[in-house]
Design brief:
The chain has 772 residues and is an alpha+beta fold. 32% of the residues lie in helices and 18% in strands.
Length: 772
């Protein structure tokens, strides 16, 4: 007759976690219930449990807690253990048991005598009671298997985490086979220094991370791959990846410390470690640790070179993605944390305005404190634009390929030598209408008086409405970028046009934009009409008054596209993978260097105009010889050439050819009139093109900013501002190297104003024309 009955809750597949008091808590897994009594045999009980979870009897272990003790697991391994478990839970109708899988393992016994037969006791090994013992089965020395060597030492593994008492149990241990390895020595030469990273049971490490790194290098040095069975913050269990190989190691945290100690180890391999050539254990972090020093010296260290070097030095075959990601991690380790850089933004903006008084630096966050936008304009840029540059701003953007992506918005200007002059820029989470509007608002607040300038920009992305609204009382002109317009024209065409036909339409469109007179503009669009009526209607409905020289009311100095600031965008491209504060600081350094270099160069100039403008004026002067001037008493003069008649108005600084108005330099017709009057041509050049204005542009300096690798210190009365990274993350894979959204645009075909031929201009025209 059966005695005491207990309902057993069988649990498997979960994991134990240790709380602050050392109590073990079981999380996850499956659970089943069964009823047992004190008459049940252990083998029957174990068979029924194994059938529940479809496990092998040989690899299954059953453990339980004593009532009131959740710190020590007790193993059930025979009939007496099972009866004790039922007896201990006599006051309860249920008990929990935990079904685990045990591996055949062996410890490091390098200090044991190498004999064919040996006896040891658990008390000698300082092993607690209820230790789980595993003995390696006998194996036959197979001389046909390379890399195997008979070892006369004996291995035993004990579980030191179950109890505190000791017991003497004699164990007879057979010989085992140890894997030596047969890989090419030249591939493991660099890894030989790691062969002793793992020494055996009892070895301690400062952290789980340190143990994992040591284990990974040990595996590379010994040319085998492994996989994790358990891997968390306080314990790691690893076995050889090769099927059936007994190599295994278990390490866990020493109680009340952060130290990780190896508790079990079977250092025996029966495999050949072939999986090592796949790069399985060469994680991105490991690749980063290997290449970091070289990357510091060679910032352009390419992933394909990383793949080749790892193969040559360590015998591990990486794929391109592993090398690329490893390089990303190494760069972040060298450059600093992306996340921390966002938290430094308040301090960084404060330091910009403190070290560069008059600068404008501000940022915004979203409701969840994540980064939204950052605007920066240095005082030297603001002053230089107002004092020396033409009243002309170019707005454009470039996508950032950093960890958190984003977009760089920029406003650049043209200095007196047609060089790029950075005015302001912003880093935003995405290129949206709202972000562009915010950028323009910050730009306006940075300039107390911003009147009568021309902004060359796309008409999309909300820019058309934002520019009109924000600058409605400032007399601002919005000149559409013809590069974006031509791209949109090609996208909007619904007909099936060949590449050649599209190229002709783009050429005609550019020619129409550059045409200085309405009749010339009309000839160009009629040419488009001859190709496609749809394209012609699109052009005529695209507001030519905003982009065609023949009708535009503002002064854009013949600059028709908004991507004038390519030099500035190249700086951003070089630094876009840096953390945000470092990227901005890298751009600052470029601006600082640019200002210093151009100021030093201009101090050597002896001409009244900048070098490029002097050259253009000289070319115009060559054309004067073929012109005839009819003088009058007023300030309006008639100038005749072989084919046309132009009218020059000195009072209004205008010529009917419009070249003077478009460029700011006197055209050949104006120079002919000035020559007849004996006047100095330099007096009729735009002041923005003079050397003096150029020097004013670069008269102020951008000053250095101290290190920002410390948080913003605030008074107790102030509330610290928290900035976290934006939710946007870079997608998997290698980033594209091309600018997003840009398409190849065919440049306009040059047309000579003298002979009306194409492919050259009047300064290089070789056609002989008879004078009237």
């Amino acid at each position: 007759m059966a005695g005491k009955k207990v309902i057993v809750i069988c649990q498997s597949g979960g994991e134990f976690e240790t709380d602050n008091e050392g109590t073990l808590l079981y999380r996850g897994g499956d659970a089943h219930a069964m009823e047992i009594d004190d008459q049940m045999k252990f083998n029957d009980f174990k068979s029924e449990v194994a059938e529940m979870f479809n496990w092998s009897l040989s690899t299954m272990s059953i453990k339980y807690f004593l009532p009131g003790n959740k710190k020590t697991l007790i193993t059930v391994s025979n009939d007496k253990d099972l009866k004790r478990m039922i007896k201990f839970h006599g006051d309860s109708s249920t008990t929990d048991i935990y079904v685990m899988m045990e591996e055949v393992v062996a410890p490091d016994v390098s200090d044991m005598p190498a004999s064919r037969s040996s006896r040891t006791t658990l008390s000698e090994a300082d092993v607690p009671i209820d230790a789980s013992l595993s003995v390696i089965d006998d194996v036959v020395d197979d001389p046909t298997q390379p890399g195997l060597l008979l070892d006369a030492s004996f291995d035993v593994v004990v579980d030191t985490s179950d109890a505190d008492a000791h017991v003497d149990i004699p164990i007879e241990m057979p010989p085992v086979l140890t894997y030596i390895g047969s890989h090419d020595e030249k591939h493991i030469k660099a890894a030989q220094q790691w062969q002793n990273n793992i020494t055996g049971v009892g070895q301690r490490f400062n952290s789980v991370h340190e143990f994992r790194e040591a284990l990974r290098k040990y595996a590379i040095a010994h040319q085998f791959a492994f996989r994790y069975k358990k891997n968390d913050s306080h314990r790691v269990t690893v076995k050889c990846k090769a099927e059936g190989c007994p190599w295994r190691i278990h390490a866990s945290r020493l109680s009340t410390t952060q130290l990780i100690c190896i508790k079990k180890m079977n250092g025996t391999h029966t495999c050949e470690g072939a999986a090592v050539t796949t790069g399985y254990q060469a994680t991105r972090s490991w690749v980063a640790s290997i290449i970091k020093e070289k990357l510091k010296v060679f910032p352009n260290y390419k992933p394909k070179d990383i793949v080749n070097d790892i193969k040559q030095e360590y015998g591990i075959q990486l794929n391109y993605f592993q090398a690329w990601r490893g390089k990303e991690i190494a760069k972040e380790q060298l450059q600093g944390s992306y996340k921390e850089a966002y938290s430094q933004l308040p301090f960084f903006c404060e330091k910009i305005m403190e070290t560069n008084p008059g600068s404008h630096a501000t940022f915004t966050t979203k409701e969840d404190s994540s980064f939204h936008r950052l605007f920066v304009s240095f005082h030297a840029s603001l002053y230089g634009f107002q004092q020396g540059c033409r009243p002309l701003l170019f707005l454009d953007s470039i996508p950032l390929k950093s960890k958190y992506q984003g977009t760089l918005l920029a406003a650049t200007a043209a200095d007196g030598d047609d060089g790029v002059f950075p005015v302001a820029f912003a880093v935003v989470d995405a290129e949206t209408d709202d972000n562009w509007r915010w950028f323009l608002q910050q730009l306006k607040s940075a300039f107390p008086t911003l009147h009568g300038i021309t902004i060359v920009a796309d008409r999309e992305k909300g820019l058309k409405e934002s520019i009109a609204d924000i600058f409605q009382n400032d007399g601002i002109f919005h000149g559409y970028c013809i590069r974006y317009l031509s791209e949109q024209l090609i996208r909007d065409l619904k007909g099936q046009f060949s590449h050649e036909v599209k190229r002709f339409m783009v050429e005609d469109f550019y020619a129409a934009a550059y045409a200085s007179k309405p009749e010339s503009f009309q000839r160009c669009v009629e040419s488009i009409k001859g190709i496609s009526l749809e394209a012609y209607n699109w052009v005529m409905q695209s507001e030519p008054v905003q982009w065609a020289n023949a009708f535009f009311q503002g002064a854009r100095y013949n600059h028709m596209t908004s991507n004038f600031g390519e030099l500035f965008y190249s700086w951003a491209s070089d630094a876009h993978e840096l953390p945000i504060t470092q990227m901005v600081d890298a751009i600052r350094c470029k601006i600082m260097e640019l200002i210093y270099t151009r100021r030093a160069d201009s101090n050597q100039w002896l001409t009244r105009l900048t070098p490029s403008m002097e050259e253009k004026l000289e070319k115009e002067s060559i054309e004067v010889r073929s012109l005839q001037v009819l003088l009058s008493a007023g300030q309006r003069f008639e100038v005749r050439s072989d084919t046309v008649v132009e009218v020059v108005d000195l009072d209004h600084s205008a010529c009917s050819c419009k070249e003077w108005q478009l460029t700011g330099l006197p055209c050949c017709h104006t120079l002919a009139v000035l020559g007849c009057l004996g006047r100095d041509p330099y007096d009729y050049c735009s002041r923005y093109l003079t050397t003096d204005s150029y020097r004013l542009t670069y008269s102020e300096s951008v000053h250095p900013i101290p290190s920002v690798d410390r948080p913003l210190q605030k008074d107790s009365s102030q509330v610290a501002i928290t900035v976290t990274p934006p939710p946007t993350r870079r997608p998997p894979g290698r980033p594209t190297t091309k600018r997003y959204g840009s398409q190849e645009v065919v440049k306009r075909q040059l047309q000579c104003s003298r002979c009306k031929g194409t492919g050259h201009n009047k300064s290089t025209c070789k056609e002989f024309l008879l004078e009237c």
